[in-house]
Amino acid sequence: MNQFLSNKEGHGTLSLKIRRYPELIGRKLGDLMTLDDDGSIAAIGRAGAHIWNPSEDTILREADELIFYGDLDVLRQRIRPLIPIIQRFTLLSFILLLFHSCDQSTQSPIAEINNEVITLNSYINKYKDFLQQTSLQDNLANRYTLLHSLIDEVLIIDYMYRTHSEHNSIYNRQKQRIYDQLLLNEYYDFTIEPQMEASDQELRTLFVWSKTTLHIRHLFAKDFSGIRHIQDNLENGKTWEDCAAMSFKDSLLKSNGGDLGWIRMGDMDPAFESAAFQLEDMQISSPIKTQYGYSIIQVLEKVKDGFLTEQEFQLEKDWLQLMAAQYKKMPAIRDFTDMMVQEMEIDFNENDLNEFFSAIIANKESKNIYSNRPLLSFNNGHYWTAKQTYEKLDNLSSRQFKRIQDIDNLTNILKGLAVREKMLLQAEELRLSTSTSFTESLERQYHNYLVHQCLENLFDHNTQTYHDPDLKQSIYKTFRDGLAEHASISIDSSVVKNFILPLGEGS
Predict the structure, then answer these.
(1) Which of 135, 197, 283, 320 could form a disulfide with 279 if both were Cys (CB 3.0 to 4.6 A apart)?
(2) CA 136, 139, 145, 147 torsion-angle sign
(3) pTM
(4) Please, what is the Cα angle at 408 between 403 and 413, to 5 degrees?
(5) pLDDT tens-digit profile of 389-423?
(6) pLDDT tens by residue, 450-460
């Protein structure tokens, strides 16, 4: 394969073994990098096979290998976002691995930073996680490594509050986004979670799937009209390979008929997997909606483990219940959302909508964009003006905005935004944001964001830091020492040296 891929001038293969970077284990691929089409090929090496074109929701495992083929200059830009994540882990003594806000309880402090207190109990809990996630042993050096990291967090967060967060609209908008997402999660748990419980028969079906591997290929389109066009071509005599050539921009998937190789349960989008595992050899699915678009799936070969025991099933029941919830959640959310759209009876001003679409696609100012005429209205008498609609679209990420390719994409996104707004309103009415756990999650995630932003601001002005760990170390040390110089920091060294971990921890 490498010989085949490497025969194009200026192209080559870059790879990254996850086991070398424990801070990446358990993270979503989409959290680390974008997977926008740039002409390169991405795959994950897993269990002796390759997952081609992996989902951004793919959870990285210790034994995984990230593999990229394409123009080497483009690949380096794609992988570049991973570098500060990896280097920061070492540079900042695991500052981002175990980010938590400091405990404000009345227990005896192990450290005090200005008015912030790190208690022994909170520190021990974080230290146990630290040892588990890094596979390090308990010793005095590692105790101080974590403690200094936690102190650095407090210093950085204090600095960001003093200099940025309260006066920077970008940070405030991000905090609102975090708040909204947490509130939506609470709303989904309140309204949809009761539907997630799986029957014993459903769990047994998943148990069989978990012991099954599939060799699959698929055809893809971003919207339903596109996948229907592909389906019509397939039913009218076009070969699968011809349809794949129409489906994909990726050169490999174009040429190999959309072949994804061998997959196991947990490798792909839940909706995709749920459909794939129900197919028999050579059977073709109807169009399946996933979070990325629509797919038509064909199972080329299915291999089942013929030796399944009741004891093993009972041992795996808890994990199977979690998988069942994943499979059920997205369809349940989709059905719930569709029901809300119907109830709201959203009506669009078609003439203004066409002009509005043309203006935002062309990225040019238009009187219509700033118009106060209703662009879409609801059955309760409320409406969004074109100006309000444009402001709501402005909150989309660049990736979400790129999905607006035609009027249908635009109307679907606007319907989704309208439903999201209604869900948030209902969640507020249910007072789902008033719990202590919600407040703590909001603070923790926002503080984590501030730490990330601070480090990005610190290093991004000097591109050399991405390739020079020593320079990065020097820049960070100078910055950190400057913060510490104006802070009151005390550490109870006797506590650090003498506390005892619970039996079995850190040994």
Answers:
(1) 283
(2) positive
(3) 0.65
(4) 55
(5) 988 888 787 777 877 888 988 998 999 999 999 99
(6) 998 888 888 77
